[in-house]
Amino acid sequence: MAEHTLSQTEKEMLVKAALEARAQAYAPYSKYAVGAAVLAEDGRVYGGANIENAAYPSGICAERVAVFKAVSTGVRKIQAIAVATENGASPCGSCRQVIREFSKPGMPVLILDASGTIMLETSLEALLPYSFGPEDLSN
Ligand code: THU
Fold this sequence. Notes:
Number of helices: 4
Order of helices and strands: HEEHEHEEH
Strand content: 15-25%
Distance between the termini: 20 Å
Radius of gyration: 14 Å
Structural class: alpha+beta
Largest sheet: 5 strands, mixed
Number of strands: 5
Bound molecules: tetrahydrodeoxyuridine
């Protein structure tokens, strides 16, 4: 699958879905709501929010919820991801690695603030250079 350049419509779709997902965050401990939206190879968008737990390490990030939602529906490649936080923060290292599993290195990543403003438009490769992926295990 070729790397994807996001159209304006796709960006708007991802921004909307990430904000909608963020509104569903379950973050009573950190109070830091995160929303993510994945554009799958079939054009469908999957949203996810962070889900915390009273046993803190059992919580999970929004990005992984969105990716796992897509993958558990049958998706194997994602074309883009958008992440919305209060302050336009970047995905954590674990999420970068999980995103890597299902995407091309150049895949677009949109970093949004709480209003949906795109604070940074970057790529997975920029966030996770020299990454380890499925190809490293194939011979
Ligand atoms: N969080 C995410 O959902 N995504 C990230 O990339 C960074 C952190 C969540 C985890 C936790 O629920 C809260 O933000 C504070 O760390």
